[in-house]
Amino acid sequence: MTTQHAFLDAAIKKIGNRYLATMLIAKRIRQLYHGAPALVAHDEEESHFTITVREIAEGHLTIELATGSLLIIPPPPTYHRNGGTPEVASASEASDIP
Question: Which CATH number fits domain 3-96: 3.90.940, 3.90.640, 3.40.50, 1.10.10?
Fold first, then answer.
């Protein structure tokens, strides 16, 4: 099994429904294609599909069942050791892209 298949299986298990996972993957790929920032570190040669299934498998994306809306779950804040303010990566812009 390739790594891509492993991420896909993990994404489907995370969503709990193969059909909903497929819808979420398609919607997120469209967002990435239109310039939305990726929520995971990735290489330039990685496909939008691979980035998307990794985002879902790692818990950065889910789908709201009541509305079918794509939900982007921001990563937890990263705190500096010296007590500085947290740095939070904002992904709210990505949810506005069709």
Answer: 3.90.940
